[in-house]
Amino acid sequence: MNKVCVIIGVGPGNGEALARRFSEGGFQVAMLARSRDYLESLVQQIPNTHAYEYDATEIDSVDSTFQAIEQKLGPVSVLLYNAGAGVFKNVEEASFDDFEANWRTNVQGLVAATKAVLPQLRQHDTASIVVTSASAATRGRANSAPFASAKAAQRSLAQSMARQLGPERIHVASVVIDGVVDLPRTREWLHDKPDDFFVKPSAVADAIWTLCHQDPSAWTFELDVRPFGEIW
């Protein structure tokens, strides 16, 4: 049986790094994102990767997408939920639509993907669901009301899932990224910062790979990762 990993939310940065890490580890990797052209460019670069156009907020397509993945690659054993929208406003400035948009991506999208993938995960002796989170999940800053509230809800959801699914040997974990991810746009924005200021996507991918291969006697639920210089 193939080892199959699904990554929801593949873009430059953590999503692409995860695709590379799990491909190197021998997985068939289904990459899901809204930009089909970008995914197809990665397929040309990364062996054993497969492109699926997908919007985490459009839940009507989730079942058909996961069925197509299973038919082509086999049952999924790892789900990496890397989708995460952010609106950074305070509670007065943010509209109801801002709050709903953040909730749809960070919470509803995770629920829909989990419901669709569970029958496949249960076909394996052990399986994993790992959610890419943020420090906003544990502390709500003044100008992050929509994002922080959605990430806090996502964290609580993941914890509930971990408690439910752990006895089935399905490891649910949340990775809190506390820092600025190294991307072309963040480098341009923070051009005066040294290399060690940024979170390396490849290092995040290594951490998530490790989570997915922990012994069930010592599972981690929440792992926070940050550069040594980050204030916390």
Automatic annotation (TrEMBL):
<dbReference type="InterPro" id="IPR036291">
    <property type="entry name" value="NAD(P)-bd_dom_sf"/>
</dbReference>
<protein>
    <recommendedName>
        <fullName>Short-chain dehydrogenase/reductase SDR</fullName>
    </recommendedName>
</protein>
<dbReference type="Pfam" id="PF00106">
    <property type="entry name" value="adh_short"/>
</dbReference>
<dbReference type="InterPro" id="IPR002347">
    <property type="entry name" value="SDR_fam"/>
</dbReference>
